[in-house]
Write a structure and sequence with these properties.
- By secondary structure, the chain is of the alpha+beta class.
- It folds into four domains: 150 residues, Calcium-transporting ATPase, cytoplasmic transduction domain A (Distorted Sandwich); 275 residues, Calcium-transporting ATPase, transmembrane domain (Up-down Bundle); 159 residues, HAD superfamily/HAD-like (Rossmann fold, 3-Layer(aba) Sandwich), CATH 3.40.50.1000; 188 residues, Calcium-transporting ATPase, cytoplasmic domain N, CATH 3.40.1110.10.
- Helix content is 46%, strand content 18%.
- Strand 19 and strand 20 form a beta hairpin.
C-alpha cells in the first residue's frame, strides 16, 4: 500500500481508527495477533544444547577428557568416572552461569528499549515501542525515535533525520498532504515518518501504517543481534591473563612430569598429575564468574533505579572523578509550582499545592482574583503551552513539560478552564527549543482577532518587547531596569523565571503562517512567572558523600545565574569562593583557558546543550573521568563524549538514552551516587574473587611442585585437585561476587582508570597467601607421611583437608583490603552458605565410604583435625589483622 498517496481521511477510514479516542484494548490485541509485535528480527540465539556443549570446547577441558579416556583404557574406571563427573558438573555450572548472564542482558535490553506516546481508549499512554500496532495514534516530538512507520495526521515544524534509510544527512520537513505520484523515493514521501528515524525538530501526530519487519527499515536492514556480549576492558585484561597462564601451564606441567618420572613415578600417574595441575593453574571459572558478577550487579542497579546499558560502564563508574549534572529534575524534584507573578511592577503571591487547583492570588495580602490583566496573563500562559493535565485521585498529573504544567495549574487556580482556551483557534506554533529558548504561538479569536504569544527565557523575551501592561490594564513603555531587578530578586530566592508577552496582529498579515520569528518584535510585555522547584530531599547528602569519595559535582543549568547559585547553596554544592560561568562567557573561552579554571567552577548557568561538550572536554583535558547527565537530543554529543553518559529515564529522549551508558529511571542525582557506589563495589568484588581463585591455585601448584622437587609422593591425586578446583574454589568465589559494599567504599578516592588488575598490592597478596596455603598443606602431608609412610591415603587426606580448609578460611580475608577482622562474617549470608556447603561436601568426601574409594580419602581423627585447623588458619592469621591503610 502506497500510504503517501492517500489523504488523511482515507487512511483513517481504511484502518478504521478514531483519531480522538484511539483503539480499544480488545482491538489492539486482535491486531497484534494479526500483525505480530513491532520488532525487527535479529540473529537467533544459540540453541541451549549448543550453549551446553560449548562449555567443553576449552582446550584444557579437552585434555582432561583425553586423560579420562586414557584412564578408562588403562582400567582405572573409578578415576575415569570421577573425573568425568567433575568435568560434567563443571560444564553444568558454566551453562547455568552463561544462561543467567544471557537472561540478564536480555532483560536489560527490554528495559532500555525505546518508548512511545500512544492514544488508547481516549487516554495517552507511555508504552514500549514494540507494543505499537497498525492503526495506533502516536505522538512524536524532538529527540524521539519514530516507533513505527507513520502516516502523519498533524505536524508542527516536524523534521526527521532519515540517513539510516536514505543516506541523506539533512533533516526532512514533514507534511500531511497526500502526494499523487507513482514510485516515490523514500526521501520524497514527506507525509510519512519511518521507524527508527530520529525526530530532530518539532512535534507531530501520526497513525501507524506498518510495524516490525513490514516497515521500511525492516525491509532493507538486517540488524545485528543487540544482545551479543561485548567484552569489557576488565574481561579483556583477564583474557590476556589467561594467555599468560597457558604458557605457565605448559612449563609447570612439563616440569612436574619430568621431575616425577626422574624420581621414579609412573608415567601414567605423572600424566594425570600434570593434567590436573594444568586445570588447577587456569581458573577456568573466572570469565564466567566475572560475567555473572557484572550481570548480577546490573540487576542490583536496576533495583536502585539505574539501568546499565554497557557493562564497561560498571568498571568506569569506580573511576568517576567529576559528575556534571543537570539541575531541573536531577538535583531538584522537577515538580514546578508557580509561587509568584510579576505584572506591571506589582508582585502577586500564589498559594496552594503544585498539583491542586486550590490556591489564592494576593497582592499586599489582598485578594486579586478578579483582575483582568492577571486573567489575561494566565490565559496566555495556558495557550502558549505544550502540556496537558490529567486528574487522578483529586490531583493534577502533568503530561509534558513540568514548567508548562505548572502554568496550566496556576490558570486553573484562577478558574481559567480548558473550555476558555478552546475558544481560540490555533493557526501556527513554533515549539520551545534550547537554541531559541522560547515558544511562539499564533491564535485567532472567535471574532477574528489574531494574537502572537511568546513565552520563554526573560533575557530572550525582553529585548523583543517595546511596551508593558500595568496591573490596571494600562500600557506604557517598557521599564527594563525594574523588570530585571525583579528577575534577580526572584532568582535569588531560587525561583525559575519565565517571561510572557503578546502582540496583536492584523488579520491580513499572512507572514505569520510561514515564520513567526519575523513577527517576534515590538511585543507587549505581560509579566514574569516565578516557579518554585525544591531540591530533592536526599540530594544534599548525596553531594556530600560524593565529595568525601573524591568526586567533584558540577551543576549545569539553563536557568538564571542567581537561581542556580541559590539552589547550589541549598544542596551544599556551591561554596563562597567557587566560580560560576555563564554561557556567553564559555563562548569566549578557549578549551585550554576553560581547562585552566574549571577546577574552581561549581556551576555553569545559562548554558546551551552545545556548551556541555566543551565542559566535558575541558575536564577530560585535566585527566578527569567525567559523568555527564542529559535528556534532550542536543545533549547526546556531550553524553557520548563523556566517560559515563547518563540519560534521564523519565524526561530523556530516546536518542539520548541510546548514546548513554547509564539510564536513571527516577532522574535523581542520588541514583547517580548509588550507581557509583555499586560500580565501585562490583569492581572490588571482582578483585576479591580473582585474589581468592589465584591464591588458591598458587597453593595447589606449590604443594605439588615442591613435593616433586623433594622426591615425595604426590600429596594430592588428580581427582582431589579437580574437586578443590570446582567445589572449594567455585562456590565461595561466586559468593564473593555478591559481597555488599564496605562502609568506607564512598570514602576512598576514585580508582585510577589506568591501574592494572593486580595493582594496590593484589599481586603480592595472591603470591604470599597462595605460597603459605601450599606450604601448610605440604607440611601437613609431610608430618603424617613421615609417621605413616605405608598409609599414603591417610597423608593425602590430611593434606587435601588442610588445603581445602585453608582456602575456606582465606576467603574471609579476601573480603577486605584491611584484614580478616575488618568486616563481620555475617554481612554476606551467601558466602557463609557457600563455605558451609563446601565444608559439608568435604566431610562427605572424607567420611562416606563409597566416596573414599573415588577420592582416595580415609577417616580423620580429632587429633588430625587439631593439626589441620592450626595449619590451615596460619596463612590467614599471619597477614589479616586490621590495618589503617589497605
Amino acid at each position: 500500500m502506497d500510504w503517501y498517496k492517500l489523504p488523511v481521511s482515507e487512511v483513517k477510514r481504511r484502518l478504521d481508527v478514531n483519531e480522538e479516542e484511539g483503539m480499544e484494548h480488545e482491538e489492539v490485541e486482535r491486531r497484534r495477533q494479526l500483525y505480530g509485535k513491532n520488532q525487527l528480527t535479529g540473529s537467533k540465539r544459540m540453541p541451549m544444547w549448543l550453549v551446553f556443549l560449548k562449555q567443553f570446547q576449552d582446550f584444557l577441558v579437552m585434555i582432561l577428557l583425553a586423560a579420562t579416556l586414557i584412564a578408562g583404557l588403562l582400567g582405572e574406571y573409578i578415576d575415569a568416572l570421577a573425573i568425568m563427573l567433575i568435568v560434567l558438573l563443571n560444564g553444568v555450572i558454566g551453562f547455568v552461569q552463561e544462561n543467567k548472564a544471557e537472561k540478564s542482558l536480555e532483560k536489560l535490553k527490554q528495559l532500555s528499549a525505546p518508548n512511545m506516546r500512544v492514544l488508547r481508549h481516549g487516554e495517552w499512554l507511555t508504552l514500549p515501542a514494540e507494543e505499537a500496532v497498525v492503526g495506533d495514534i502516536v505522538r512524536i516530538t524532538a529527540g524521539d525515535r519514530v516507533p513505527a512507520d507513520l502516516r502523519m495526521l498533524q505536524v508542527n515544524s516536524l523534521e526527521t533525520e532519515e540517513s539510516m534509510l536514505t543516506g541523506e544527512s539533512l533533516p526532512v520537513a514533514k507534511s500531511t498532504a497526500s502526494i499523487k505520484k507513482e514510485k516515490l523515493a523514500l526521501q520524497d514521501q514527506k507525509n510519512l515518518a519511518f521507524k527508527s528515524t530520529l525526530v530532530t525538530k518539532g512535534l507531530g501526530r501520526g497513525i501507524v501504517v506498518q510495524t516490525g519487519m513490514q516497515t521500511e527499515i525492516g525491509k532493507i536492514a538486517t540488524l545485528m543481534d543487540e544482545t551479543s556480549h561485548v567484552a569489557t576492558p576488565l574481561e579483556m585484561k583477564l583474557k590476556e591473563l589467561g594467555k599468560i597462564l597457558i604458557y605457565v601451564v605448559f612449563a609447570l606441567t612439563t616440569l612436574t612430569v619430568a621431575i616425577g618420572i626422574y624420581h621414579g613415578q609412573l608415567m601414567y600417574d605423572m600424566f594425570l598429575a600434570g593434567v590436573s595441575l594444568a586445570v588447577a593453574v587456569i581458573p577456568e571459572g573466572l570469565p564466567a564468574i566475572v560475567t555473572v558478577a557484572l550481570s548480577l550487579g546490573v540487576q542490583r542497579m536496576i533495583k536502585r533505579k539505574a539501568i546499565v546499558r554497557k557493562l564497561s560502564a560498571i568498571e568506569t563508574l569506580g573511576s568517576t572523578s567529576v559528575i556534571c549534572t543537570d539541575k531541573t529534575g536531577t538535583i531538584t524534584e522537577n515538580k514546578m509550582t508557580v509561587s509568584e507573578l510579576f505584572i506591571g511592577n506589582e508582585l502577586i503571591t500564589v498559594s496552594g499545592a503544585g498539583d491542586s487547583a486550590v490556591g489564592q492570588f494576593r497582592r499586599n495580602k489582598q485578594d486579586v482574583h478578579e483582575n483582568k490583566t492577571l486573567a489575561k496573563m494566565l490565559l496566555y500562559g495556558s495557550l502558549c503551552n505544550g502540556a496537558t493535565l490529567k486528574v487522578k485521585k483529586g490531583k493534577y498529573l502533568v503530561d509534558g513539560d513540568p514548567t508548562d504544567g505548572a502554568l496550566l495549574i496556576a490558570a486553573r487556580k484562577l478558574n481559567i478552564s480548558q473550555h476558555q482556551t478552546s475558544q481560540f483557534r490555533l493557526l501556527h506554533s513554533t515549539p520551545f527549543d534550547s537554541i531559541r529558548k522560547r515558544m511562539s504561538l499564533l491564535v485567532e479569536t472567535m471574532e477574528g482577532d489574531r494574537y502572537l504569544i511568546v513565552k520563554g527565557a526573560p533575557e530572550i523575551i525582553l529585548p523583543r518587547c517595546k511596551r508593558a501592561v500595568h496591573f490596571d490594564g494600562r500600557e506604557t513603555l517598557l521599564n527594563k531596569e525594574a523588570i530585571t531587578e525583579q528577575m534577580d530578586r526572584m532568582a535569588k530566592r531560587a525561583l525559575r523565571v519565565i517571561a510572557i508577552s503578546v502582540k496583536k496582529l492584523k488579520s491580513s498579515d499572512n507572514r505569520s503562517l510561514k515564520d513567526l520569528a519575523t513577527l517576534e518584535k515590538e511585543l507587549t510585555f505581560i509579566g514574569l512567572y516565578g516557579l518554585q522547584d525544591p531540591p530533592r530531599k536526599n540530594v544534599k547528602r548525596a553531594i556530600k558523600e560524593c565529595r568525601q569519595a573524591g568526586i567533584k559535582t558540577v551543576m549545569i543549568t539553563g536557568d538564571h545565574k542567581n537561581t542556580a547559585i541559590a539552589i547550589g547553596k541549598q544542596v551544599g554544592l556551591y561554596k563562597p569562593n567557587d566560580l560560576v560561568l555563564e554561557g556567553h562567557e564559555l563562548n569566549d573561552y578557549s578549551l585550554d583557558k576553560l581547562a585552566s579554571v574549571i577546577e574552581r567552577v561549581s556551576i555553569f548557568a545559562r548554558v546551551t546543550p552545545e556548551h556541555k561538550l566543551k565542559i566535558v572536554q575541558a575536564f577530560q583535558q585535566n585527566d578527569h573521568v567525567v559523568a555527564m547527565t542529559g535528556d534532550g537530543v542536543n545533549d547526546a554529543p556531550a553524553i557520548k563524549a563523556s566517560n559515563i553518559g547518563i540519560s534521564m529515564g523519565i524526561s530523556g529522549s530516546d536518542v539520548t538514552k541510546e548514546a548513554s551508558s547509564l539510564i536513571l529511571l527516577d532522574d535523581n542525582f542520588h541514583t547517580i551516587k548509588e550507581a557509583i557506589r555499586e560500580g565501585r563495589n562490583i569492581y572490588e568484588n571482582i578483585r576479591k574473587f580473582i585474589r581468592y581463585l589465584l591464591a588458591s591455585n598458587v597453593g595447589e601448584i606449590f604443594v605439588m611442585l615442591v613435593a616433586m622437587l623433594l622426591a615425595l609422593p604426590l600429596p594430592l591425586v588428580p581427582v582431589q585437585i579437580l574437586w578443590v578446583n570446582l567445589i572449594t574454589d567455585g562456590l565461595p568465589a561466586m559468593a564473593l561476587g555478591l559481597d555488599p559494599p564496605e562502609r568506607n567504599v564512598m570514602k576512598e578516592q576514585p580508582r585510577n582508570p589506568r591501574e592494572g588488575i593486580f595493582s594496590r598490592g593484589l599481586g603480592f597478596k595472591i603470591m604470599t597467601r597462595g605460597l603459605l596455603i601450599g606450604l601448610v598443606s605440604l607440611i601437613a602431608f609431610i608430618v603424617v607421611y613421615k609417621q605413616y609412610p605405608d598409609d599414603l591415603s591417610y597423608a593425602r587426606s590430611v593434606a587435601f583437608t588442610t588445603l581445602v580448609l585453608a582456602q575456606l578460611i582465606h576467603v574471609f580475608d579476601c573480603r577486605s583490603e584491611r584484614g580478616l577482622f575488618a568486616r563481620s562474617p555475617f554481612s554476606n549470608v551467601y558466602l557463609l552458605l557457600a563455605v558451609l556447603s563446601s565444608f559439608i561436601l568435604l566431610l562427605i568426601v572424607i567420611y562416606l565410604p563409597s566416596l573414599q574409594t573415588i577420592f582416595h580419602t580415609t577417616y580423620l581423627t580429632i587429633y588430625d583435625w587439631l593439626l589441620i585447623i592450626a595449619l590451615s588458619a596460619l596463612p590467614t592469621l599471619l597477614f589479616s589483622f586490621p590495618k589503617n591503610k589497605p
